[in-house]
Amino acid sequence: AIIAGQGTVALEMLQAQPDLDMLVVSVGGGGLIAGMATAARALRPGIEVIGVQCLRFAAMFDALHGTHHPSGTSTIAEGIAVGSPGRLTEALVRRHVHDLVLVDEGDIEQAIVMLLEIEKTLVEGAGAAGLAALLREPGRYRGRKVGLVLSGGNIDPVLLASIIERGLVRAGRLARVRIGARDVPGSLARITQVVADAGANIDEVHHQRAFTSLAAQNVEIELVLQTRGRSHVGEVLAALRAAGFDAQEQT
Fold it and tell me: Residue 133, Cα to own-chain centre: how many angstroms?
């Protein structure tokens, strides 16, 4: 009954967009994809159905591919963190699903952030797995009309804040820069002025004298910067170096 009920998702998608080439669906126990694949391929035998699991819980992937991935203890995709595939669902997945792919935690985090930023839609980790698959292998889906299922918005606000911040770091919009400078009055003011003139905003400042390998007359300053992206980080570093500072991005 669950398989049949969840299969109506595919019916609605194809009613709204009959010319879909592919469906990309997150997989836990397999109820959603089993129902969707059965319904979609009954209506359109040529449609391609791809299942997505997270690397830490790859039970269905392992069952179909004869592989063994060590099971994790946690994932941000809690809704698909299933230890073993269902008996009925596995048989339907074998019959109707073309392939299963794996995504890691970083792929899912990136998908959550993109959906928030571009679509203004809050989607939990399990529901963002489909987009994560597209981000991981864009060439596979390029030129195809792809249907994704975005399911669930059940995500802890503290975890969401962390995911957003990590996404900004990955995109280069939040960067950590370490600068060596002479420990004299005005050095920090000059550094902040160069950063401001380059169009970046300072989020945090750490002024380090003791825990550094620099000479005693020097100081190490670590800045966390808000920037426009990876290329802008490079522009800020170039401006600091042109001003005579030893500046490096820290990862």
Answer: 10
**In this predicted model, what pLDDT tens digit does every residue of 73-84 receive, in sequence order?**
889 999 999 988
Residue showing tokens 């800045």: 223
Other C-beta atoms lying within 10 Å of the C-beta of residue 243? 16
Select from 122, 127, 98 the least CA-distant residue to 28. 127
The SS3 assignment for 126 reads: coil
Contact at 8 Å (CB) between 75 and 28?
no
In whole angstroms, give the CA distance from residue 233 to residue 201: 11
Question: Which tens digits make up the pLDDT trace of 168-206?
Answer: 998 889 999 999 888 788 888 999 999 999 999 999 998
Closest by alpha carbon to 227, among 168, 162, 180, 164?
A: 168
Q: What is the mean pLDDT of residues 10-39?
A: 96
Locate 190 and state its tokens: 């000059």
Residues ≥6 apart with Cβ < 8 Å to 130: 24, 25, 26, 52, 148, 149, 150
Whether residue 211 has pLDDT greater than 70: no
Whether residue 232 contacts residue 239, with contact meaning beta carbons closer than 8 Å, is answered with: no
Q: What pLDDT shows up at residue 219?
A: 81
What H or E segment, with its residue span, contains residue 52?
strand 48-54
DSSP 8-state code for residue 78 = G
Task: Provide the whole-model pTM.
Answer: 0.83
What three-state secondary structure class fits 192? helix
Q: Which two tokens stand for residue 177?
A: 């820069």
Which residue shows structure tokens 């059940």? 154
Closest listed residue to residue 174, CA positions, set 229, 222, 221, 220: 229
